[in-house]
Structures are given as C-alpha cells and as structure tokens.
Amino acid sequence: MLTALVLPLVLAAPAMATPSAAPRTGHPICFVITQADNGTTFDTAIPSCDLLQLSGLRWSTPAVDGDAVSLVPIPAPYGDQSWQIVAEQPGEATITSLGRPICTPGQVCPDFVVLFRVHIVVLATPAATA
Fold first, then answer.
1. Which CATH number is associated with domain 2-6+27-123?
2. For the chain, N or C: smaller number of CB within 10 Å?
C-alpha cells in the first residue's frame, strides 16, 4: 500500500482571521513506504521526505545497497519500525530487510522469513510538488 502525504501540514486558521499572503506551494510529495510496497521502485529527489515503515514482524535493520540514499531511524509507536529515507545524491539504491514472526517465549512459533525489498531512484531534478 502506498500512502502519499504532503508536508508541512496546513492548520485551519481562526474563523475571523484574514489571510496575510497567498498559500505557499512547492512542498515535495512524501511517500510512506510499507511492506505492502515490497518489490516496488520509487522515484524521489533531493531533498526527500519519504519514510520507510515496517510493522507486524520483527524486522532486521534495513540494508542499503547503493549510495543514493541513507536511512535514519525514527522512534515509532506500537512496535513499528520507521526510518527517514534521506536522498544523498542522484543515483539508485535498493533497501532490503528480513521479517520474522514475533513470538512469545515458550509458544510454538512458525518458522518463516519475509524478504522486503524496494528500489529508490534519486532524480537529479527537483521533487514533484503539490
């Protein structure tokens, strides 16, 4: 599942407020990449505001193959694991992680591993805006 969000968020002004300037435009479109996006390629630009969010399994720390992006861990609630995807330079990178079941000690636990992989293309042109 691919969820797009536009940052920063615009807050509603008080009912009696008068606009002092035209609304700002030109904010990059940000993607929240989840395990539902496994196998997908994403285009981004510098600066990027994309996030990687993995949940539901015990995920290994994602590995980045390529020097176009880096990952910065973000604290996440409820056992989710999240990282900001930082576009470093134009080019390509592949992000991979392995997910295993979360089991309570002493319980029978299924034995499987899920491979998660996405491909990121950092474009040399500015990011699309909303």
1. 2.60.40.1860
2. N
Mean pLDDT score, 52-70: 95
Domain assignments of the chain as residue spans, ordered by start:
2-6+27-123
Structure tokens at 64: 């980045």
| pTM value surpassing 0.90 | no
Give the pairing type, strands 91-100 and 58-59: antiparallel
* Selection from 82, 87, 54 nearest residue 70 by Cα: 87
- Mean confidence (pLDDT) of the chain: 79
Q: Are 29 and 128 in contact (CB under 8 A)?
A: yes
Which range, of 5-19, 38-52, 110-124, averages the lowest pLDDT? Answer: 5-19
Q: Which residue type occupies 40?
A: T
Distances from the Cα of 68 to the Cα of 34, 40, 45, 60, 77, angstroms: 20, 17, 10, 21, 28
